[in-house]
Write a structure and sequence with these properties.
Mean pLDDT: 86
Low-confidence stretches: none
Strand content: 15-25%
Largest sheet: 4 strands, parallel
Helix content: 40-55%
Number of helices: 9
Number of strands: 8
Length: about 280
Amino acid sequence: MKKMNVHLLSDGTGETALAVLKAILVQYEHEDAVKISRYKNIRTKEQLRSLFEKIKENKKSYNLIVYTLISPEIRESIKDFCKKYEIAKVDLLENLIVIFDKFLKSREKQPGILRVVNEDYFKRIEAMDFFLKHDDGQLSEDLDQADIILVGVSRTSKTPLSLFLSNKGWKVANIPLVCNIPPPDKLFKVNQKKIVALTIQPDYLLKIRKNRLEKFGYSSGEGDYVGKKQVYEEVETIKSFFYKMKWPVLDVTDIALEETAGEIIRIVSKRMKIPIKIF
């Protein structure tokens, strides 16, 4: 049986073409007669020329070019090379692109965009997993792996903000601060530019805490958690600690979550001197 060499060409990883090819080959016997070679990140005519020079040398096997490339110029170059060297070809995207172009307004076609989308997706999954493991002071020993560290007194939206930011691809840890209880040592050893402190107006915090207690059926009578004097002292003491540590402080009083999250991203990106990334 004559051998077949299938050459998969892609401007990304080639996973799309490989998945299609595997789905087809499973329908046939003697799959071992087919050798698959995958060529990733094909973006230039020079890459194609070098590739086809190698392919044309193998005349003992039947050669087939299968490709998933967005660039019209590169697709045309493949057709030209295939015609020149008399090699069979299959464009997996061409027919679909022609049909969709008739009905939809096309964006500027970007090579490898599917790979980028997939990478962003997995970054968000990884960030979400990190958040779940580092919510409310958990696993503080590996805080250095966080992109952002939020600190603040109870009920300053640390968890909702961490969840929101992790869904944007940021690895976020949050640590509650309580008067007379020292923060974890690791907090002082990590890059301090990753830390953003959250504060809130005492009256607003008092209202939130009382509503929370009542929601769960507890009395909202006087106590350290909802005592007016205690809450005022707690907020001011923690805020003074923030300024002593020279951490940027954000007041979350009656501010939309999205707005606060955007400001956190801006602050950390500027302090860490990195591009603002919102996946």
